[in-house]
Design goal:
This protein is an alpha/beta fold. It is built from 13 helices and 11 strands. An 8-stranded mixed β-sheet has the order 2-10-11-9-8-5-6-7. Strands 1-3-4 form a 3-stranded mixed β-sheet. β8 (316-320), α12 (328-339) and β9 form a beta-alpha-beta unit. The radius of gyration is 24 Å and the shape is elongated. 35% of the residues are buried.
């Protein structure tokens, strides 16, 4: 089924009354559809192109940069992904009738487990490797069906979606991160962090692809432990992916503490859940520790809010899709001013990495970032100083399953801006 469009369960699944006589391979295909629909694997966003810009040049509109030309630099990956759009899948997943039918179908399949497995009793399978293999396949089928049924039944009332994100390092290492998305709670827009947004996918992909670019050194016996903070972590994809990166190199990696922060109680509870399902299965001590902690930008810093773990500054701070109100940039700057560690020398550059979508409806928010974080001819690029400034800016074009269709016939792209913010010196002079 890989590469073929997903269809609705009522259309694709074998009739419930004919499950008994449905071939094993057809049942496997049916489960593959349900797994892809209700427990999807989401590949990273596939960067098509990147273009660095002078931090002092204000770009507040997608019309001011030629994304078509930017994408054509990577013509080998400009083909459209052979998967249905996120919009279509979201509509299908939210269809109560389709989900109800899937639950009934899976229940019918699991209820017949005894018939499937008992057929291959010890006498039948004795000294017959072919029959033994078939028995194992049936047992695996029933296990998979039960697992998918639990997901469907559990999310039928809650409206949750479990996703598995897959990222690849240049050396070929595959990292898998599982997250649970929750629905918006009673129009409470402070709970929007319970969904995984595109900027988190983009930032996580870039971190996995080039950790050193983001100040992450994975190896070194004499290197100091690293402290990493994610602001507005939401489902925690960026923190979880970073944690998986350290975990994959645990034999030689430096100790790391990762704090995934948010402030909405429902978001924090889901964030902790996502940390648990990705990391609590570790055996033995690990040099990587990841925690979910509450942080309210609007009140930080205050004497009552600067407590563990925020009483010690961080080496790296991440933020993805976290500025969607005009005041957010100022609040975030107040937080970063306290939470980002000052450099120890000219080679030490603690940084805040911020990824935001480039949307025509959010130009005011984008402008507020460049107005809040100092961008001017009076900023030196020498590390140090007492001011936070944008020291690098790049535009990112990413292939999307659906989105703004470009002029290129086969290409859908999402557009983002990546800001690198650090401590800089102010005064006369230019870059």
């Amino acid at each position: 089924m890989t590469g073929s469009p997903l269809s609705s369960p009522t259309f694709h699944l074998p009739p419930i009354g004919k499950i008994k006589c449905t071939p094993l391979e057809d049942l496997k295909n049916a489960l593959e559809l349900l797994r892809a629909l209700y427990n999807p694997v989401v590949h990273s966003s596939r960067l098509l192109g990147r273009q660095s810009m002078c931090p002092r040049v204000h770009i507040t509109s997608e019309d001011e940069i030629d994304f078509e030309q930017l994408c054509r630099r990577n013509t080998d990956i400009m083909t459209r992904l052979p998967f249905p759009s996120d919009r279509f899948l979201d509509l299908l997943r939210s269809d109560d009738f389709e989900r109800s039918y899937a639950i009934r179908w899976l229940t019918a399949l699991v209820s017949q487990a005894d018939r499937f497995v008992d057929y291959y009793d010890e006498d039948t399978c004795c000294n017959d490797p072919v029959l033994e293999q078939q028995k194992m396949q049936w047992e695996k089928l029933i296990e998979d069906a039960a697992a998918i049924l639990a997901i469907c039944a559990g999310s039928a009332s809650a409206g949750t979606i479990s996703r598995t994100f897959v990222f690849h390092q240049p050396a070929g290492l595959e990292l898998r991160v599982q997250v649970t998305d929750l629905p918006l709670q009673n129009q409470d827009f402070s709970s929007v962090g319970a969904q995984t947004w595109g900027g988190a996918r983009v930032l996580a992909e870039m971190i996995i692809g080039s950790p050193r670019t983001f100040g992450i050194e994975l190896r070194g016996s004499t290197a100091s432990p690293i402290r990493i903070l994610e602001l507005g972590a939401g489902t925690g994809l960026v923190s979880l992916a970073t944690g998986k990166l350290f975990q994959a190199h645990s034999a030689r990696s430096i100790p790391a503490t990762i704090i995934a922060s948010d402030f909405n109680p429902a978001v924090l509870a889901n964030l902790q859940h996502n940390i648990d399902i990705n990391f609590t299965a570790l055996s033995g001590p690990s040099p990587t520790n990841i925690f979910a902690r509450a942080l309210d930008w609007s009140t930080f810093p205050s004497s009552s809010s600067i407590h563990v773990p925020f009483d010690t500054p961080f080496d790296v701070i991440f933020g993805a899709d976290i500025i969607y109100e005009a005041e957010h940039a100022a609040w975030i700057k107040n937080c970063v001013r306290v939470l980002l560690r000052h450099p120890l020398n000219s080679f030490d550059t603690p940084q805040f990495h911020l990824v935001v979508p480039l949307r025509p409806t959010h130009t005011a928010e984008l402008r507020s970032i460049e107005e809040t974080f100092l961008v001017s001819d009076g900023v030196r690029d020498t590390p140090g100083g007492d001011e936070l400034g944008i020291v690098a800016k790049e535009f990112l074009a990413c292939q999307a399953d659906w989105g703004v269709r470009s002029k290129h016939e086969d290409l859908n792209i999402d557009k983002y801006v990546h800001y690198t913010i650090a401590w800089v010196k102010t005064g006369l002079g230019t870059f």
